[in-house]
Amino acid sequence: MDKFLKNINHEEVLKLADLVEASDGQVVSKTLAQNDYVSITVFAFSKGEEISTHESDGDALVTVIDGKGKFIVDGKEYILNTGESLVMPARKPHSVHAIEGFKMQLTVVFPLER
Question: What residues does the Cupin type-2 domain cover (predicted)?
Answer without folding.
Answer: 43-110
